[in-house]
Amino acid sequence: MKVFVIGIAGGIGRRLAKALIARGDEAIGPVRRPEQIDQLADHGVPSIQGDILTMSVAELAQAMHGSDAVVFTAGAGGKGGPAATSAIDGDGPRKLANAAALAGVRRYLLVSVFPEAWRERHMNDNFEHYMLQKKKAETELVRSGLDWVILRPSALTDDPGTGMVDLGLAQTHREIARDDVAATIVDLLHAPEVSRTILEVTGGSTVIATAIGAVTDPSHESR
Ligand SMILES: NC(=O)c1ccc[n+]([C@@H]2O[C@H](COP(=O)([O-])OP(=O)(O)OC[C@H]3O[C@@H](n4cnc5c(N)ncnc54)[C@H](OP(=O)(O)O)[C@@H]3O)[C@@H](O)[C@H]2O)c1
Fold this sequence. Notes:
Blueprint: E1 2-6, H1 11-22, E2 26-28, E3 30-31, H2 34-41, E4 48-49, H3 57-63, E5 69-72, H4 81-103, E6 107-111, H5 125-142, E7 147-153, E8 155-157, E9 164-168, E10 175-177, H6 178-189, E11 197-203, E12 206-207, H7 208-216
Parallel strand pairs: 1-2, 1-5, 3-4, 5-6, 6-7, 7-11, 8-10
Antiparallel strand pairs: 9-11, 9-12
Helix pairs in contact: 1-6, 3-4, 4-5
The protein binds NADP nicotinamide-adenine-dinucleotide phosphate (NAP).
């Protein structure tokens, strides 16, 4: 399987690319800074220089040519203010969907966020704007007609992965290691029966493959 990853130099993105390559798949995606190409190559991850904001839909479609799936795991990360959040988190996923449709790539996994994430912390206006943009992106992908999966991870950590998660249509928001999000994405990409659904994932107590099995087969043992 060849996967085109937007955000491939990011925390989840590079873990995802490395995990895909480790299991014999291919991963590639655009990075904004030339030095990131060498940094990823040091880990055996190929990339191209590109920015989803400046690449046209046709250029993105060309770049993903031959891919079996696309993953959007980019984010402004609070840098650049609300305009950057709107452009990357809000509009980026739709642009990627348009490019995927043009390139004939049907499978699309969007990394989103729990709607109730950190509500108890009474976050600032920029965070609320981020949440609105993530929901906008979800809504547009759901309408795209592609073979989409939206994965909402809870708060991300750089702790080592455990290989165990809680995954389902609704979960309690806690924390999850980026390693475990990446591993979940790998297994979801290889589970074509999981399609057109929104899943929430957080650190938990179920082996990832078992948790994914339980999504499509409720009789599957999930604990
Ligand atoms: N942080 C959390 O707790 C949390 C919780 C739930 C969901 N999420 C979501 O999880 C996803 C990944 O999180 P993460 O921590 O892995 O993010 P990250 O480390 O900030 O990585 C995001 C990547 O996106 C890239 N990017 C930004 N704008 C781009 C553009 N215009 N074109 C190409 N690439 C671009 C960044 O490039 P540069 O390296 O050039 O900056 C960066 O490498 C995000 O969508 C985020 O909203 C985060």
